[in-house]
Amino acid sequence: MKWEKAKIKGFTLIELLVVIAIIGILAAIVFINVASIRGRAKDAAVKMGIDQLSYLAQVYYDERNGNYGGFCNDDRVETVYDAIPGADCDKNPKKCKVCHHDSDEWTVCVQLNVPEDKSKAWCLDSTGNKKQIDQADCEADITFCP
């Protein structure tokens, strides 16, 4: 009786390790992209919220006969303003969002999530000027988007 080596069909350990490594690399790439997409989605929500404030400002201006005084303290404005998801608002609420008004003008500035260092902000003023600015320019006394 001869002992015959049984032929077992299957994968070798090396083949399995290579497949696991490839799956791990692909999962890491997907995870990085998902994190980036989340930040950009939050920034889109910031811009949309600020646009809503623009519409509220027009209504407020008409209701007050051409005066923006008290705009940032209006209940409707505060509701929308508080819902805007600025970056790191839990850690530094005074720095992540700014709403400034006087009788003739208003400006809103909110810190963005992208880039990762959170060095940029989105700004909108009463002239309709809206743009990305440096976070350092987003101060409490900002009167226009620089």
Give a quick summary of the entry.
This protein is an alpha+beta fold. It has helices at residues 13-63, 75-83, 93-96; strands at 97-101, 106-111, 120-125, 130-134.
Question: Which SSEs are present, and which pair or pack?
Answer:
Blueprint: H1 13-63, H2 75-83, H3 93-96, E1 97-101, E2 106-111, E3 120-125, E4 130-134
Antiparallel strand pairs: 1-2, 2-3, 3-4
Q: Any descriptors?
A:
146 residues; 4 strands; alpha+beta; single chain; 4-stranded antiparallel β-sheet
Describe the 3D structure.
This protein is α+β, with helices and mostly antiparallel strands. It has one domain (13-137). It is 44% helix and 15% strand. It is built from three helices and four strands. The protein has a four-stranded antiparallel sheet with strand order 1-2-3-4. Strand 2 (106-111) and strand 3 (120-125) form a beta hairpin. It is rod-shaped and about 105 Å long. The termini are far apart. 23% of the residues are buried.
The description of the largest β-sheet is: 4 strands, antiparallel
User: Unreliable runs, pLDDT <50, ≥5 residues?
Assistant: none
Query: What string, H for helix and E for strand, traces the elements in order?
Result: HHHEEEE
Percentage of helical residues? Answer: 40-55%
**Structural class determined from secondary elements:** alpha+beta
For the termini, the CA-CA separation is 92 Å
